[in-house]
Design brief:
Layout: E1 28-29, E2 35-37, E3 41-42, E4 50-51, H1 53-66
Antiparallel strand pairs: 1-2, 3-4
The protein binds zinc ion.
Length: about 70
């Protein structure tokens, strides 16, 4: 389990791993810190599955623009 950067998990969550870099996908939180989304971004057309923020912006979006 990755350590939460804020040092807290309000509820137990199962983090998914990015299909591109294999790192845990950082959960999306409300300003209050509640996790509302743990699935990252659709990695297509680069890969089948879900990817993290970093890969979405550095790999997936550029690939879509080239498509
Ligand atoms: Zn990634």
């Amino acid at each position: 389990m990755e350590e939460d950067p804020n040092g807290r998990f309000l509820k137990p969550v199962k983090l998914e791993n990015c299909v591109i870099c294999k790192e845990a996908i950082e959960p999306q939180r409300t300003p209050e810190g509640d996790i509302f989304w743990t699935h990252g971004h659709n990695a297509r057309p680069v890969a089948e599955g879900q990817c993290c923020d970093d890969c979405n912006y550095s790999v997936v979006i550029p690939a879509r623009l080239r498509a």
